[in-house]
Amino acid sequence: MKLYYIAYAKMPTEKAHGIHIAKTCEAFAEQGIDVTLVVPNRKGSTLSVQEFYGLRRDITVVRLSVIDLGNKGPIRYRITALSFVCSYVWYLWTREVRKESLVYTVDIDHFSFLGIPFSGLPYFSEIHGGKKKTRLQCFFLSHSSGIIATTPITGNELKIRFRLPDTK
After folding, report:
1. What is the average pLDDT score of the chain?
2. CA-CA distance, 107 to 111, in Å (whole number)?
3. What's the pLDDT at 45?
4. pLDDT at residue 100, rounded to an integer
5. Model confidence over 35-74: pLDDT tens digits?
6. Distance between CA atoms of 17 and 13, rounded to whole angstroms?
């Protein structure tokens, strides 16, 4: 199985979400899954993800070009995130994607994951907290293959708010 882990995050990073992403990719790889971590190409450490986090397995990292305006201000943030969305959708479209490929993402922000339904691949989203009911969130969640809610409270809230079946 080929898994593309899409994360709008600077990698590696000393922030907790970086450790979480790296260790999740490592766990998938240890289960025999061919993992590719897809992140924006942003300034950061020159160490590999494996070296930085002390992973037991090397993780393939694809760094996609983005219009990097930084995260200072909502407009700059959205332009950078939108350029990442365009980059990863294009990247996924141009891969020789096999039937057993899928996408995995984590809800670091409320914007950069929105292109995933257009990848043409099944996808799973790890969600750490409640979400506002917007048209974009409804579209994203309704087209997902599954939701990984990190707590029962989050799972129940998502099922009720977005009318998700238990099978998701």
Report:
1. 91
2. 9
3. 67
4. 83
5. 999 999 987 767 899 999 999 999 999 999 999 887 788 8
6. 8
Q: Which residues pair with 125 in a beta bridge?
A: 105, 147
- Give, in order, the Cα–Cα distances in Å from 36 to each of 46, 70, 71, 143: 18, 24, 25, 22
Q: Write out the two tokens for 120.
A: 């043409």
pTM higher than 0.85: yes
Those residues with Cβ within 8 angstroms of residue 82's Cβ, 6 or more apart along the chain or in another chain:
111
Q: Is the dihedral of CA 50, 113, 4, 155 positive or negative?
A: positive
Q: What kind and span of H or E run contains 55? A: none
Query: Which single residue is written with the structure tokens 């969130």?
Result: 137
Strand-pair category, 2-6 with 146-149: unpaired
Which amino acid, 64?
L
Three-class SS state of 111: coil
Q: Cβ–Cβ contacts within 10 Å for residue 161, how many?
A: 15
Distance (Å, rounded) from C-alpha 106 to C-alpha 66?
A: 19
Element (H, E) at 27: helix 16-30
